TrEMBL record:
Keywords: DNA-binding, Metal-binding, Nucleus, Repeat, Transcription, Transcription regulation, Zinc, Zinc-finger. One of its GO terms (molecular function) is DNA-binding transcription factor activity, RNA polymerase II-specific. This is GZF1 protein. The keyword Zinc applies.
Length: 194
């Protein structure tokens, strides 16, 4: 009698694997490549694992797969015009699937993702930029609506006094001659003030 196959699947294994690879990288264990980056005279070296870089970046995959056996395994990769802080963030992202950056660096992270052909980081940056744009548009819409409501409320009070003035015309406050009021009325007072 045959038994039915069952699926054994770990939800935590991918996260655990990434966390362990990150710890190995941070400690410098089993690293088989050093990536040197330089931007405007600032240079830094980052030990990493070829397998992780190749699995997350088509750029690194092409570099490592196109190594010639005569040259031996490539243990150094040099990236020019890449800021140290951006590459450090890139590495953190590919090893942990998350990284915290300032809003003004999102565009630079998108550019490094495109340069290194890292689809996951590109998509993440694109989605974040989309959310940021939607947030700005929502703020503009709210600001516009609040401006419109302020303009309407500012216009409404000026309508109310006009309506009151129509109900009580200015001439009605001036007593007609013969009712005991001066024929000069308010006009005479304004002339005195001038």
């Amino acid at each position: 009698m045959e038994s039915n196959p069952v699926l054994l699947e770990s939800k935590s294994s991918p996260i655990n694997l990434l966390n362990e690879m990150q710890q190995l990288r941070l400690l410098g264990h089993l690293c088989d490549v050093t990536v040197s980056v330089e931007y405007q005279g600032v240079r830094a070296e980052f030990p990493a694992h070829k397998a992780v870089l190749a699995a997350t970046s088509k750029f690194f995959k092409e570099v490592f797969l196109n190594e010639k056996p005569v040259d031996g395994p490539c243990s150094n990769v040099f990236l020019n015009e890449v800021q140290v802080v951006d590459f450090a963030s890139f590495l953190e992202f590919v090893y942990t699937a998350r990284v915290e950056v300032e809003e003004d660096r999102v565009q630079r992270m998108l550019e490094i993702a495109e340069k290194l052909k890292c689809l996951d980081l590109s998509e993440t940056c694109f989605q974040l930029k989309k959310q940021m744009l939607e947030s700005v548009l929502l703020e503009l819409q709210n600001f516009s609506e609040s401006q419109n409501s302020e303009e309407e409320s500012a216009a409404c009070p000026s309508i109310a006094p006009i309506a009151e003035a129509e109900q009580n015309p200015p001439d009605s406050s001036i007593a007609m001659p013969g009712r005991g009021a001066s024929p000069e009325g308010p006009a005479a007072k304004s002339k005195e003030k001038d």
